[in-house]
Structures are given as structure tokens and as C-alpha cells.
Amino acid sequence: MKTKLLHLVMFLLFSGTIAAQDTIFVKSGDIIPAVIVEKNNTEVKYRKPGQAASPAIYSVFVSDILSIHYSNGIVADYSQAGQDNGKPVKPIENAGKMKVVRIGIEPTVDYFMKTPGDLLLKFWRYWALDSKATIGGNPVSIPLNLKVNFVIGNSGRFWMGDELQLMITPSDAISASTTNINGLEEIKLGMFYYNITIDAGHTLNHKRTLAAILEPGLDVSFMRGHITLVDKEYKTSLCVGLGYHCAVGLDWLITKRISLSTRVGYRSVNIKEQHIDKDSNTGYSYFYVVPVTDKRRLTVGWQGAYANVGVAYNMYYKLMKGIQLER
Q1: 37, 105, 111, 134, 152 from 195: Cα distances, Å
Q2: Hey, where are the domains in the chain?
């Protein structure tokens, strides 16, 4: 009899332990079984049921919680958490939510490992009188990015955005020079890029401050500089090209105001050379790859792998009742 009574007591205690779990309902639709160990205005910390002795503690932001159903039957409603309740809320306080859009101004350092293309190399070796002549250049430039990002979905995990990049390469981004029996032969070309980019990202950490980014884009490019042949300089003019770039990288929101980005990718654009020629009837002319033997129009390739890193200053705008700049 005593043994049966002991078994009954143990069964009731064990059943109470199983039932003594809370349930967190998240706005994204997830349901989290939990044993809550700590709460504050920012986050709720919990252990997984059945792991009371485990040191592993998890957390979820209060702003992500819809409600909590406690084991004693009490239901806590968090659906209104974080709302202004009639008080003015600055857009920056809603950073990482669908209520605002983030606009960043970002200077970057770009390293472009470009190749000038086979046609330009063939052209240069002909005029340099050297079948092994090479073409070099300065790979570093300082682009300026204007970024617009916003969150998709209540979970705050998905980022979408648009980016405008303005980049002016050094004037010797593609360069080569030699002196032979004909005189000075030189190539010195630079580029202005106007790039329109789409950013798509997904956060990698619980605080949603680090995101993996996929970045395809369209490049509109304007080539400038000069080509000197037999001591005569020809200035490039009206050289416009279309191309593309595609990159992957990371965006890290260090603070709500300051973010760091890094990208690695590939860009490509080919531009047909055209220069000012005072001796021609039109005032403009262009070179053949090799006179007489190869009458293809000279094309300069701006293509290759690149990497960049930048630091942005962020501002936030409301997406309710029109777009309002934060004051």
C-alpha cells in the first residue's frame, strides 16, 4: 500500500514538471516551448523544456513576441509592445522594423583587379614594338555609395534595398608607357562609374545586426584619358559603355547610426575607344587594333574581380503617413 502511494506521488510530481512549461508565440508565426528564466523591457530569456539543468539560455526580443502563455494559465499580451501609445517615437527607435527605411551615406575603398582585354593588349604590343609588353594600372579607387534599405516581414530577418554607387577611378587606372624608335608611346585611361544596384540580404545572428548580402547591379561607365602614339596625344572622348557587376558580402550594423559593409565580386564592361582628332572631318576618330592587318575597332576591357569595404552613416525615415525625416 505504501509503495502504491509513493508511486502515485511521484507520478503527480513528474506530471507537474512536464506541464510546468511556458509557450512563447512569436510574430513571425513560430511557437516556442520554453521555461522562462528572466524578462526585461528588451528581451525574454528562457531554457528549453526538459533542460532545466542545462546552462544553455536562449532569448527573444520583446518586439518580436506576440504573446506568452504561462504554465499557470496566465496569458501575457505583447502585441502592443514597442508602440508609441500616443507618444512621439523617433524613426531610429524603430530601426530594424518595417516601419522605417534606412538611408546610408557610405564612402568605400575599392580594389579592382582589372584586365584591359586582348584587343587593347594586341594594340599596345604593336605600337610598343614589343610582343611581350604588358599593361598595368592603379587598382584602388574611392567610391561613394548612397544606400536605401528596409525590412521585409515582421521577423526583421530579410533585408531589401537599392544602392547608387558613384566611382571615379584614378586617371592611370589602365596605363602603360614606353619610348622606342618612333618616340613616346603611352596609354593612360580612367573611368567614371555610375552603378545601380539591388541588395537582398538575410540576417545571420539573433540580434539581426549582421546580414549576408547578394548584390547584382547595372554599370554605366564613361572612359576618359589619352593614348599617345609617335609623340602625338589623342584624348578619349564620348566613350560610354554598359556593363554589370555581381557581388556577395556582409553588412554589419555596429550601432544604429554606423554600419560596416564588405563585398567581393566581379564586374565587366567593354568600351569602344573614340578620341578627338583635329585632322579628321568630324573631329572624332578611333583606332584599329592593328592598322591594315586587324581592322577591328579598338575596345578597352574593364573587367575582373574586385573587393571593397566601407563605413556608412545611417539616417531613418518613417514609412507611415508619408515619409518623414527624423528630427
Answers
A1: 50, 15, 16, 29, 24
A2: 2-82, 101-318
For domain 2-82, which CATH number applies: 1.10.3720.10, 3.40.50.1000, 2.30.30.100, 2.30.30.110? 2.30.30.100
**Contact yes or no for 125/118 (Cβ under 8 A):** no
Establish whether domains 2-82 and 101-318 are of one fold. no
Give 214's contacts (C-beta < 8 A, 6+ positions apart). 199, 200, 201, 247, 248
User: Would you give per-residue pLDDT tens digits along the chain (327 residues)?
Assistant: 444 444 444 444 444 444 468 888 888 788 888 888 888 877 888 888 875 556 778 888 887 888 888 888 888 888 766 554 445 566 666 666 667 888 999 999 999 999 888 999 999 999 999 999 999 999 999 999 999 888 887 677 888 888 899 999 999 999 999 999 999 999 999 999 999 999 999 999 888 889 999 999 999 999 999 999 999 999 998 899 999 999 999 999 999 899 999 999 999 999 999 998 877 777 889 999 999 899 999 999 999 999 999 999 999 887 654 444 443
CATH code for the domain defined by 101-318: 2.40.160.20
What's the burial of 250, exposed, middle or buried (CB within 10 Å: 0-12/13-18/19+)? middle
DSSP E strand boundaries for 80-121: 100-115
